[in-house]
Specification:
The complex is a heterodimer of chains A (422) and B (383). Chain A has 15 helices and no strands. By secondary structure, chain A is mainly alpha-helical. The longest helix of chain B is centred in the first third of the chain and has 35 residues. In chain B, α2 packs antiparallel against α10. In chain B, β2 and β3 form a beta hairpin. Chain B folds into 2 domains: 39 residues; 246 residues, Orthogonal Bundle (MetI-like fold). The chains are: A mainly alpha (422), B alpha+beta (383).
Chain lengths: 422, 383
């Protein structure tokens, strides 16, 4: 695009700026009025010209405005950031107009014409979204078929587990050396017991709630939480195995890791639901949720192992040599010298693995667990609430987006933090 | 002696553990299958499948064997992966380059695109496109043509189909053109290395690949006709398009979701690759007197590609594995047809899940092996 518009420009810079800004404002005003108030000021122009009218005007306006240095702060930053060349000016206009065009319909669908009052489908009279549907089904999306009056059990279990997760921060200096022990061994056991006794119930006077009733977003959290805490130690062992100099152990670890990394999660879930029961002893019943958690753990452990292996490989050889020269054996060397440093390196990687894990959990819907995607499918086919698939999926997408975005930003911060520390 | 035991004992224990686990599972499976009266074997593959598939690339009907159903379903999976890879590459490269733009608006739009699409679980995206977005499309009778001849309706995307005559002549011309281009490239490289001269390889290649197939139309007797989709009334309110090729909404939703989702990862790979080339390279090339196009072609791209390609192949692999989510919206891919319907009918859980997993595993391992070979080839050979 080697269009030279300099010839039409005036010699006087001020004239150029006046003409340019007038044209640019006119073009933006045209699109703005068109999309927000349905007034088409260029409608009198023939045929397709009225569609391209603002684009042409804005393009001319921007090329009039383009100067090396004008002395006005705003204009200079405009020229520097969005108006460097003809091509850039064109893209700038295109994006601005696209946003201006798309904004009003989206706004009116999501807010202005939307309904949120009432408890039945009849309340949704507008042409916009029906948030009543989300309001009515909200508890189901969050807790699944779990009995309404028992939701406090899920809430308090989550609060307890999260609270215990932060305990590590308050460890006194002399307890710091047990931090890893706490997070790798004690915390998972306590968390498991809390979730088992509080959410499942069956003892301490709590009513038993079978896992079939669990569901919604809380199930997503339960599954991803357990998979994370179980896959971490397994991944660590596999990573050490892959780095071992004993051939049998190395090949078995490599085989394990490559196998699970090579198959899609959905086939693993199928395996857990149809193939796994065949491998268990007769009359031995294992809950579907437990089988799914085991399957995802085995699957995710392979990815975890690769992340941890990255950390192990990043350590300088000197660390190994120094530990060996002090007379440490394999286990002593790894527990006291190698792993503490390597694990610190892989924290961002583990956070990313966890993010992928959370994004993968909706898949358990495929084997019949009513996680949030499953609840949406259920709500969508409810005869009283037909036709609101859009709202449901947008709602779920927003929830997942917030969770995943927060996590990715957090893991990015961790990465930055540990980068500077080294 | 002590050292030897230290080496052998752990390995022995691990092997024993693995053997024990496998043995335990095998014995249990034997007992379970005996009790349920199922026998182990792959004989079922030659039996009649007796189920139908909505969308197939090759001829298939219920009388064909399970083996043929497997092949057809595998082709469906590969089709989705292939389309997804093409679209995600195009989108990913555009977005990745846009993220490095100097234009504030473009840079930020691209960044938000990436943040938006990669933080929503793929399954939800597929569901969104399939159950929400594509359901809002018009019925066949109300559909407006896109580009004049194609129709996007709630029942799928209808495009004209091509009817070839003497297709093999056309194809052989195409292959001849490609072979000639490869030869010319090799020759040009030799010339460049020997004499430092550069041949206009790109123009020659473009000319070859357009002229040879065109010649086949003029001389070789190749003809190409299009069969247009035509609206047909089945009943009072039921309309359908006939003729042409119909792409089912499942395929469209799947390809859309997969390519939008994976393109964000490809975009990050592309960005990292281009950022990984130091500015000095560009400046050095410019100071030697290369033109901007030559700098991009001879200096930047060969180095950037070395960084971009390995992680991007990984993303392609992920896309192929993720295409198994097709089962959730009933697109007849390998998982739905084989691990779903066929398993339900035959009850051969171990064999069928095993075959499905092995298929994906071999695709992954094949691509990984190819990648290792490629990495070895393009490695910077340091002296």
């Amino acid at each position: 695009m080697n269009l030279s518009l300099n010839r039409i420009k005036s010699q006087n810079q001020m004239t150029n700026i006046y003409i340019g800004s007038a044209l640019l404002i006119l073009s933006i005003l045209d699109v703005f009025l068109n999309s927000f108030f349905r007034i088409n000021i260029s409608g009198s122009l023939p045929g397709n010209l009225s569609i391209f009218f603002p684009l042409i005007l804005g393009f001319l306006g921007l090329s009039y405005l383009r100067t090396e240095y004008s002395g006005y702060k705003f204009l200079d930053s405009l020229n520097k950031n969005i108006n460097t060349t003809n091509f850039n000016a064109f893209l700038t206009l295109f994006i601005t107009f696209a946003i201006l065009k798309a904004f009003p319909p989206a706004l009116s669908w999501m807010v202005l014409d939307a309904n949120i009052s009432g408890d039945t489908k009849d309340a949704c009279t507008g042409t916009g979204a029906c948030w009543t549907y989300i309001k009515v089904w909200f508890k189901r999306f969050m807790y699944g078929m779990y009995p309404n009056e028992l939701h406090w059990r899920i809430n308090s279990a989550f609060l307890l587990v999260i609270g215990l997760g932060f305990v590590g921060y308050f460890f006194k200096e002399n307890l710091k050396k047990y931090l890893a022990l706490y997070y790798v061994v004690i915390y998972p056991i306590i968390a498991f017991l809390i979730i088992y006794y509080l959410i499942s119930g069956g003892s301490f006077g709590l009513v038993w709630v079978e896992t079939g009733a669990w569901g919604g977003l809380s199930l997503t959290f339960i599954v991803s939480f357990f998979c994370l805490i179980f896959c971490f130690p397994l991944g660590m062992i596999l990573a050490l195995g892959r780095r071992s100099n004993l051939p049998a152990i190395r090949y078995i670890s490599v085989g394990y890791i490559e196998f699970w990394r090579g198959v899609p999660l959905i086939t693993v879930l199928f395996m857990s639901s149809v193939m796994f029961p065949m491998f268990l002893p007769q009359d031995f019943f294992m809950d579907k949720l437990v089988r799914v958690i085991i399957a995802i753990t085995l699957f995710e452990a392979a990815y975890c192992a690769e992340v941890i292996r990255g950390g192990l490989q990043a350590l300088p050889r000197g660390q190994y040599d120094a530990a060996k020269s002090l007379g440490m054996g394999y286990w002593k060397m790894h527990i006291f010298v190698i792993l503490p440093q390597a694990l610190k390196l892989v924290i961002p990687g583990i956070a990313n693995t966890f993010l992928a894990l959370v994004k993968d959990t909706p898949l358990i819907f495929v084997v019949g667990l009513a996680e949030i995607a499953g609840m949406l499918a259920l709500a969508k086919t409810n005869p009283k609430w037909l036709g609101f698939a859009m709202e449901g999926y947008i709602f779920a997408a927003i929830i997942f987006w917030i969770i995943c975005y927060a996590m990715s930003k957090y893991s990015y911060n961790l990465e930055e933090k540990y980068k500077t520390e080294r | 002696m002590n050292n030897k035991i230290k080496r052998i004992l752990p390995q022995l224990l691990t092997i024993l553990f693995v053997v024990f686990v496998f043995g335990f599972f095998t014995i249990n499976a034997q007992v379970n299958m005996d009790n349920r009266g199922i026998d182990f074997g792959f004989g079922f593959l030659s039996q009649e499948a007796s189920f139908d598939m909505q969308f197939t690339l090759l001829d298939y009907d219920g009388q064909d064997s399970y083996l043929w159903a497997y092949v057809v379903a595998l082709l469906n999976t590969l089709l989705v992966s292939f389309l997804g890879i093409i679209f995600c590459t195009i989108l990913g490269v555009v977005i990745g380059v846009a993220r490095l733009s100097q234009n504030f608006l473009i840079k930020n739009s691209a960044a938000w695109y990436v943040e938006f699409f990669r933080n929503i679980p793929l399954l939800l995206q597929i569901f969104f496109w399939y159950y929400a977005a594509l359901r809002a499309l018009p019925l066949p009778e109300n559909a407006q043509p896109w580009f004049g001849v194609t129709y996007m309706t709630i029942k799928g995307y209808y495009i004209p189909s091509m009817i070839w005559e003497n297709l093999n002549v056309f194809l052989s011309c195409l292959i001849a053109a490609i072979v000639a281009i490869i030869f010319i490239r090799v020759y040009a490289k030799k010339i460049q290395e020997r004499e430092g001269k550069q041949l206009p390889v790109l123009y020659i290649s473009l000319a070859l690949i357009t002229i040879l197939p065109l010649l086949s139309f003029l001389i070789g007797g190749v003809t190409l006709d299009f069969e247009m989709p035509v609206l047909k009334q089945l009943a009072q309110t039921s309309f359908i398009f006939e003729g042409g090729v119909a792409l089912p909404p499942e395929l469209i939703a799947l390809v859309l979701a997969l390519s939008l989702y994976t393109s964000t990862f490809v975009a990050e790979c592309v960005r990292a690759g281009i950022q990984g080339i130091s500015k000095g390279q560009k400046e050095a090339a410019a100071s030697v007197g290369l033109t901007p196009n030559q700098i991009l072609k001879l200096v930047i791209m060969p180095q950037a590609l070395r960084i971009i390609i390995p992680p991007t192949t990984n993303q392609y692999l992920n896309l192929t594995k993720n295409s198994s989510l097709a089962a959730a919206i009933a697109y007849p891919d390998l998982v739905l047809v084989f691990a779903g319907t066929a398993l339900m009918q035959t009850g051969k859980a171990i064999e069928i899940v095993g075959i499905t997993m092995l298929t994906y595993l071999s695709i992954s391992l094949a691509i990984a092996a190819l990648m290792n070979w490629y990495n070895k080839r393009i490695e910077i050979k340091e002296k």
